[in-house]
Amino acid sequence: MRAGEATVRSGVVIVVGGGFSGALTAAHVAARGLGCVVVEPGELGRGLAFGPAAEGLLLNTPARLMSALPDEPDHFVRWLGCAPGAFAPRVAYGAYAGATAAALAGERMVHVRARAIAVERDGAAYVVACDDGSRVRGRALVLALGNAPPRAPAPIDPAWPEYRADPPAAPGDEVLVLGTALTAIDAIARLRGRGHRGRITAVSRRGLVPESYAGAPPGEQVPSGRDAIATPVSVPAELVARPSLRALIAWWRTAGGDAAGRAAGVRAAAPAIWRALPADDRGAFLRHVRARLDLVRHRAPPALRELVDRGRAEGWLDVVAGRVAAAHRTGDGIAYRIGAIARTARWIVDATGPDRDLARSASPLVRDLVARGWVVPDPLGLGAITGARGELGAPGVFAVGPWRVAAVWESTAVPELRVQAAETAAAVAAYVRA
């Protein structure tokens, strides 16, 4: 190859992003007999959720519900050789996802270990430019870019060196964690696992932490006879077809069963409900309901919830309701104020969750896609506007994974994503064969 000449790889389908959603979608495409190139700098199947950054963390769902193959519910349990109710290590799940994708795809899937930096149209083909100088050409394009980093809330400056996703905390450092949901609990567990023993202050608007799975001994597993997602309480058909936020809240309060069962019922009907919910009600749901529903919908592994409860009892963890009203750098870190509480933290960990608003994405690739009109951001900041099969704003361009939250709401967890990967692959195959 001459100096300055780019390597060109070709496949019928290009998948940008090789986390769980991208790797499984590519594997299903390849299993349909189509050549597929995955552009992903890391190991396939891992992404942020199951990669090196998740070392020492557990899945928040029992193993028997985590099969990557919908038709083989015990696939992950057999692969790992664990108890069905175990909360397995996340890095082990990443290895499983990669191995499953490779086995499903065979030799029709090629992994380009690079980062996509631009996409162009060349006639009927798409050409992806990578940061290693290579270019990938294909007839269809799947965007599986996963979750973006959180957006630092004012008055915190993301350029501060103390603002870190994974701080190198010394044992006695004080740490401020933004958020109190599952991501925040993971951050607390990661700090304690590395020997941190200083005070941790975790703050969110309501100061609420996720519930745990009932009946599970701390650090162990859910009983094998108990469904960790709970027995769903069915949402009435008329409420699914013509929902309103007021009616949904009334149903929740009177439906009976436990909260986990009601959350499971809403989850099963979520795509239909979300599509039919009036726009104003969607906005009200995001402002007033989502945080409380997530406490039940996204429950914590027993070991992690026990860690939070113990930390609060022992005094090294303070969970605060409110927001950071003021913050500035000092010689000792960051001085901040939450209501009447004034403290100094050596490090700030942002665990508020991903910023799904593509309109303000910092990614040059995403910004270019938006500028071209191939990706249209959802007005509520939940991802991209997509068609029923994940279609984006250009022929043969599809989205899979968290970008589809705006259309179907439930688009971040394995039980939904494994189905979505197979269905997206079918839609892509239909497009290229039309």
Topology summary:
Elements: E1 8-10, E2 13-16, H1 20-31, E3 36-39, H2 75-80, H3 90-105, E4 109-112, E5 116-122, E6 125-130, E7 135-138, E8 140-143, E9 175-178, H4 182-193, E10 200-204, H5 237-241, H6 245-254, H7 259-276, H8 279-288, H9 290-297, H10 302-314, E11 317-321, E12 326-330, E13 333-338, E14 341-345, E15 347-350, H11 364-372, E16 397-399, H12 405-408, H13 414-433
Parallel strand pairs: 1-7, 2-3, 2-8, 3-4, 8-16, 9-10, 9-15, 10-11
Antiparallel strand pairs: 5-6, 6-7, 12-13, 13-14
Helix pairs in contact: 1-3, 1-13, 4-10
Walk me through this protein's architecture.
- By secondary structure, the chain is an alpha/beta fold.
- The protein folds into two domains: 8-149 and 355-433, FAD/NAD(P)-binding domain (3-Layer(bba) Sandwich), CATH 3.50.50.60; 175-210 and 300-350, FAD/NAD(P)-binding domain (3-Layer(bba) Sandwich).
- It is 33% helix and 17% strand.
- It contains 13 helices and 16 strands.
- The chain has helices at residues 20-31, 75-80, 90-105, 182-193, 237-241, 245-254, 259-276, 279-288, 290-297, 302-314, 364-372, 405-408, 414-433, and strands spanning 8-10, 13-16, 36-39, 109-112, 116-122, 125-130, 135-138, 140-143, 175-178, 200-204, 317-321, 326-330, 333-338, 341-345, 347-350, 397-399.
- Strands 4-3-2-8-16 form a five-stranded parallel beta sheet, with helices on one face. The protein has a four-stranded mixed beta sheet with strand order 1-7-6-5.
- A hairpin with a 4-residue loop joins strand 6 and strand 7.
- Helix 1 runs parallel beside helix 3 (90-105), helix 1 crosses helix 13 (414-433) and helix 4 (182-193) crosses helix 10.
- The chain is globular and about 65 Å long.
- Mean pLDDT is 92; it is low at 1-5 and 215-228.
